[in-house]
Write a structure and sequence with these properties.
The longest helix has 18 residues. The protein starts with 8 loop residues before the first strand and ends with a helix. The strands form two sheets. It has an eight-stranded mixed beta sheet with strand order 1-10-9-2-3-7-6-8. It has about 300 residues and is α/β, with parallel strands linked by helices. Helix 2 packs parallel to helix 3 and helix 6 packs across helix 7. The chain is built from eight helices and ten strands. Helix content is about 25%, strand content about 20%. About 30% of the residues are buried. Strand 4 and strand 5 form a beta hairpin.
């Protein structure tokens, strides 16, 4: 009989192999950010994948991810592309097509993670014919036509101007309030208060409400976890911010659900899942990253209990 993995643990190994020991249809959400193509040093062999090989490299993991997800489960993929010899590569979109057309995932929504803190780079000069890239993709896939989605936890607070609509202090019917986009509004009645608006920004409020653009500055560079890693000489090259994980875990799971990250890296997905009352499993091929993830989880516990 197969010895399945225990929840609330980190496991070291190649995810396509470790995932084989996860119980079928047991996971509510897979949230992950795989290695950047041909770009980063992750401290393990065969981690720098050329763009032309990326889709084939990811296929074994994708099949295992599909196997372990519940029929109501979701898969959120944070991924970025790159420019090679002056041409932006297409492997990100080819992977999305493979996941949908070959593995029968359903694309729920394509999100843009906009990082306003993206530093200047070679493209900032303009001499390469394009601007710097300050966003990454977050593709939300479902296994079936039914998946968990919670809007209320991810709503952003209403703007001060919204109060006049909620209190019924505006006037005019739909014919008098038509926008160039053809949307119209009835202002003769008070609008329903849903506790916040459809999320357009996770951290900062903004005048517009784009819904699928997540504006999150990736600026955490001196927190207790980062300082501890520096003291131990361990560094992870590509941490995504807690708020990004919070958005998808709150929206795509309920308390007590199981969240899995097959490229857990510094453990962000797992730490956030724990903090939100979810169970979790983290997998990474780099033993140092598994060590710092466990260390980070312990630091979170100590902070929570006022021990540091």
């Amino acid at each position: 009989m197969r010895n399945y993995l225990h929840i609330d643990n980190f496991y070291c190994g190649r995810c396509e192999e470790v995932l084989k020991n996860v119980r079928p249809k047991s996971v509510d959400l897979v949230l992950t950010s795989p290695p950047y193509s041909d770009k980063r040093d992750y401290g393990i062999e065969n981690a720098q994948i050329p763009p032309q090989d990326f889709v084939n490299w990811f296929k074994p993991m994708a099949r295992q991810i599909k196997r372990v997800l519940k029929d109501t489960g979701s898969f959120v993929l944070n991924i970025n592309d790159k420019v090679v010899n002056g041409e932006q590569q297409l492997y990100v979109f080819k992977l999305v097509i493979y996941l949908c057309e070959q593995l029968n995932f359903k694309l729920v929504r394509d999100y843009i993670w906009y990082n306003p803190a993206t530093p200047p780079n070679i493209y900032s000069t303009g001499k390469y014919g394009r601007t710097k890239k300050s966003h990454e993709y977050c593709f939300w896939f479902s296994v079936s036509d039914t998946w968990t989605f919670n809007l209320d936890p991810i709503r952003k607070p209403y703007s001060p101007d919204m109060s006049k609509f909620l209190e019924g202090r505006c006037h005019g019917g739909r014919d008098e309030n038509t926008r160039p986009s053809t949307h119209n509004f009835n202002l003769d009645v008070a609008w329903a208060d849903h506790g916040g608006s459809d999320p357009g920004s996770v951290i900062e409020s903004c005048d517009s409400d784009p819904g699928s653009v997540l504006k999150i500055a990736n600026t955490s560079s001196n927190d207790i976890f980062t300082r501890t890693c520096k003291e131990r000489g361990i560094r992870h090259p590509a941490r995504f911010p807690n708020q990004l994980a919070e958005f998808f875990i709150q929206a795509g799971t309920n308390e007590g659900d199981l969240v899995l990250d097959p490229f857990s890296g510094s453990g962000t997905t797992c730490v956030v899942a724990r903090n939100l009352g979810r169970h979790w499993i983290g997998i990474d091929a780099n033993a140092d990253y598994c060590e710092i993830s466990a260390m980070r989880m312990e630091l979170e516990r100590r902070v929570e209990n006022n021990e540091v």
